[in-house]
Design a protein that fits this description.
Protein name: F-type H+-transporting ATPase subunit beta
CATH superfamily of the largest domain: P-loop containing nucleotide triphosphate hydrolases
Strand content: 5-15%
Family: Belongs to the ATPase alpha/beta chains family.
Keywords: ATP synthesis, ATP-binding, CF(1), Ion transport, Membrane, Nucleotide-binding, Translocase, Transport
Helix content: 40-55%
Main location: membrane
Oligomer: single chain
Order of helices and strands: EHHHHHEEHEEHEHEHEHHEEHHHHHH
Shape: globular
InterPro entries: ATPase_alpha/beta_chains (IPR050053), ATPase_F1/V1_b/a_C (IPR024034), P-loop_NTPase (IPR027417)
Radius of gyration: 21 Å
CATH topology of the largest domain: Rossmann fold
Number of strands: 10
CATH architecture of the largest domain: 3-Layer(aba) Sandwich
Structural class: alpha/beta
CATH class of the largest domain: Alpha Beta
Number of domains: 3
């Protein structure tokens, strides 16, 4: 039987500030968020909760609860993202990072890569500039400075084109983002993929910096200090809506093994730095060294950085990423030096 799930696109279109509206209706925002992301299955939801959501959206239960697959992932060719926290077509991706850890560079790179797949990009430029904003401006097809400009541009772009909208957290906090969603035609089925950033770095201290998200990308400052980019935290970054629900079984298995290995590697790393690897039991040494190799493999040169780094960019298809990561996890790359895996492409090319 096809899985039942909420029509999240309809909810977000008709109830842009869903967290506030849910609380006003007597619902727990966390419950609504978990239903939207699939963390709580529809079958476990209270009828009262679903009825209130339908009332908020002004729709029937048949419109609110739909059958079939949810929105799919957008393959970016970026190993760390596609493996651990895929960008969802029509979903919301939130980047949480301290300044200087590369979030704007990743945003520019994503716009570049999505353009290769036929996406039209809009950058809702914040009033305040941040390092990396120039690269984003170069990669965006359109730059807007207000909700009105964005809305006008959305109406001008042909309906057959896929759109990615990039914006700063400031427009979420100000309510302008909600106003934009409210300004859209509720009957418009156009898919808009949203990427949200935080140029101030304040989001790292907020439990729910953007409200409900489909993909959560947390940056790791320690990776940045070691020159490993993209500096994506492999344990904290996640895509809840896809975990175990839509990903193919091989992807799920590799993803789970990756998180398990990287979680233990990160626990061991301070001990190794302080006491040396020789103090670890042999089994832990093996795990630590594989974690080192996997961490190095997940680094990747970007297209927009080629002029500065001199390193040729890599687009690694998801099946190849899964094959290589599975090999590292299972010990098939134990003979390859860590340095040779850093900013490399496929293992077979080493």
């Amino acid at each position: 039987m096809d899985e039942l799930h909420l029509n999240v696109s309809l909810l977000r279109t008709r109830v842009p500030n869903l967290t506030v509206a849910a609380r006003s209706a007597g619902l727990r925002p966390a419950t609504v968020s978990n239903l939207c992301t699939g963390k709580i299955p529809i079958g476990r939801a209270e009828v009262r909760t679903l009825a209130l959501l339908a009332s908020l959206a002004g729709c029937t239960m048949d419109e609110l609860i739909v059958r079939g697959s949810l929105a799919g992932m957008i393959e970016t060719g970026i190993k760390a993202l596609d493996l651990l926290a895929p960008v969802i077509k029509g979903g919301r991706t939130g980047l949480v990072a301290r300044p200087g850890t590369g979030q704007m560079v990743l945003l520019a790179e994503l716009l570049h890569r999505l353009k290769k797949q036929g996406y039209t990009s809009i950058f809702w430029k914040p009033a305040e500039d941040a390092a990396g904003t120039g690269e984003v401006l170069q990669e965006a097809d359109y730059v807007c400075r207000s909700a009105e400009e964005v809305l006008q541009k959305l109406h001008e772009i042909p309906g057959k084109e896929e759109i990615v909208l990039a914006a700063d957290r400031s427009v979420v906090l100000s309510g302008e983002f909600d106003e934009l969603m409210e300004g859209q035609d509720a009957s418009n089925s156009r898919s808009i993929t949203t990427i949200l950033v935080d140029i101030t770095g304040d989001a790292v201290d907020d439990e729910t910096p953007y409200g409900p998200l489909d993909t959560f990308l947390r940056f790791d400052a320690e990776l940045t200090t070691r020159g490993l980019f993209p500096a994506i935290d492999p344990v904290a970054s996640t895509c809840v809506i896809l975990e175990g629900a839509q990903l193919e079984p091989p992807h799920v298995w590799v993803q789970q093994q990756t998180r398990k290995l990287m979680r233990r590697y990160r626990e061991l790393r301070p001990l190794v730095l302080f006491r040396g690897i020789d103090k670890l039991p042999e089994s832990e040494k093996i795990m630590y060294r594989r974690g080192e190799r996997l961490e190095a493999y997940l680094s990747q040169p970007f297209y927009i950085a080629e002029p500065y780094t001199g390193k040729k960019a890599e687009w690694i298809p998801l099946p190849e990423t899964l094959e290589d990561v599975g090999k590292i996890v299972n010990g098939g790359a134990d003979h390859i030096p860590v340095d040779e895996l850093t900013f490399a492409g496929r293992i077979k090319d080493i």
